[in-house]
Amino acid sequence: MAPWIQTGFIILFLLVTACSGDKAKDLLETAEFEERQMNLPHAKQLYEEVIHLYPSSKEADTARARLARLSRD
Predict the structure, then answer these.
(1) Structural domain spans, the chain
(2) Model's pTM, two decimal places?
(3) Residues 7-41: pLDDT tens digits?
């Protein structure tokens, strides 16, 4: 997939999710999307952001698990 198309999908995803009220969930979903796209450095950065901004959320628990798995791989 061309980089500009991938970037377009990311922007579209962010615009659609920006309207929802659950920022931790939105950020986690973006991180998961980046991971599926094999953009692992950005996925890790977003997982860390979830943990930093929402440390006691269930999304932070998921982000911790995903970071641990990515660190092992």
Answers:
(1) 3-72
(2) 0.72
(3) 766 776 666 555 556 999 999 999 999 999 999 99
